[in-house]
Amino acid sequence: MRIPLSSPDITDHEIKRVCDVLRSGVLSLGPCTEEFEEKFAEYIGTRFAIAVSSGTSALHLAVKAIGITPGAEVITTSFSFVASTNCFLYEGAFPVFLDIDPYTLNLDPGAILRFLVHGCRREGTRIVNLATGRNVEAILPVHVFGLPCDMEPICHIARQFGLHVIEDACEALGASIRGRSVGTFGEVAAFAFYPNKQITTGEGGMLVTNNERIAEECRSRRNQGRATNQNWLQHERLGYNYRLSDIHSALGVAQLERLSELLHSRQQVAQAYNRALSPLCRSLKLPIDLPDASRSWFVYVVQLLGNSADRDKLIAELNADGISSKAYFPAIHLQPYIYDLLAKKREPLPNTEHAAATCIALPFFSRMTDAQVEYVSQSLGRMLSRIPARVLATAS
Ligand SMILES: *Cc1c(COP(=O)(O)O)cnc(C)c1O
After folding, report:
1. Cα-flanking dihedrals φ and ψ of residue 304, to 5°?
2. Beta-bridge mates of residue 192
């Protein structure tokens, strides 16, 4: 038995929708993209949704439209997929990585407040980082593994300090805080549809906002800076080809129609893992739930109460049993190009580094069977029973 890390859930329904587009002769800028955008905006509860070629391009357009200044700084998390930092590096901005909460693995609002109060000074309306002399302009929280960040305090802090908020909701389609969908808290938010996400278009992303100016600007920039209702060869601003084709959009519409079914199946698999792994709770930290937020299951990640050598050995042993797993996430601030960018002067991020050294993503997809969950859990149990207790006792 070989169990993959993830696997898309595509039915005849999706195949038919895609084939209809192929037969129609209109392969890009057709009716499916508009339908996908309308239905997506309605589901999230924002006025506008703009379909783009990837989650990364959605984030990049968000940074452009917000108007982050080259040389400015953005507060964000290092425990994420690199795209959440790359999106503002493209515009010449710098990251300020603050530490995560060790339980939620999300950016800690307390750390943001401490940094702004003790690590910055106000100069008029500007917030200047004392350590670098650069202006801090925005906060970019990431809903890591589909668990919502604590958005209410983050938005409150942002308002107090005059900072923009861009939400990276690429892992969290379907998640909410007190009934309010992620992606509606920031001025602008990004979702993504790579094949391992809750819904897929192969490649694709969506930018959502309630701000009409941001929506218009992003619509124009994704299509080579064209004016939205004008001559095809009239370009008003610097633009990109970040369009989502009608073929991809048809897949997106069909997946969105099945979203509640897909989210339900993912939740069932997560619950099966929770039950099967709970006897191992002395060696593994399982994903947590929050009382006032509803997680959308993106991946199933456990944290080994041991060290990174044990973790890497475990991944190799699981692989020998036919089980794909991954060290997930490696910390962004330790990637060589980022380390160089920060002039090798980095603040310690103990919670981030500990999580990056001990997290393991287990196989997780909507059609995973109980037998597969059982097989993974038993393999894991056998391996953990062989790791000496002395090592596990050193866990923080
Ligand atoms: C998937 C993902 C993205 C976007 O990825 P693309 O591959 O560009 O669609 C951005 N941020 C996070 C945290 C992600 O997991």
Report:
1. -80, 130
2. 205
What is the spatial distance between Cα 344 and Cα 370, in angstroms, rounded to a whole number? 46
CA–CA separation, 291 and 365 (whole Å) = 25
Residue 390, pLDDT > 70, answer no
What is the spatial distance between Cα 215 and Cα 61, in angstroms, rounded to a whole number?
10
Round to whole Å and give the CA distance between 8 and 196.
6
What is the rounded distance in angstroms from the CA atom of residue 35 to the CA atom of residue 244?
12
Q: To test the ligand 1 pocket, which listed residue (171, 199, 301, 326) has its Cβ within 8 A of the most ligand atoms?
A: 171
User: pLDDT digit string (tens) for 19-32?
Assistant: 999 999 999 989 99
Whose tokens are 């302009």? That residue is 137
Phi and psi at residue 288, in whole multiples of 5°? -100, 165
CA distance to 245, 382, 383, per residue, from 190 (Å)? 18, 40, 39
> What tokens were used for 243?
């369009």
Residue 330, phi then psi, degrees to nearest 5: -70, 145
Alpha carbon 395 to its chain centroid, in Å, reads 27
Closest atom, ligand 1, to C-alpha of 168? 11
Ligand 1 pocket test, pick from 53, 56, 63, 188 with the greatest ligand atom count within 8 Å of Cβ, gives 56
Rg over alpha carbons for the chain, rounded to the nearest Å, is 22
Q: What is the pLDDT of residues 91-135, one digit of tens each?
A: 999 999 999 999 999 999 999 999 999 999 999 999 999 999 999
Stretch (H or E) spanning 154: helix 151-161
**Cβ partners under 8 Å of residue 1, min gap 6:** 322, 372, 375
Question: With 0-12 CB in 10 A as exposed, 13-18 as middle and 19+ as buried, what is 147?
Answer: buried
Separation between Cα atoms, residue 246 and residue 252, nearest integer Å: 9
pLDDT at 395: 45
The closest of 175, 190, 9 to 87, measured between CA atoms, is 190
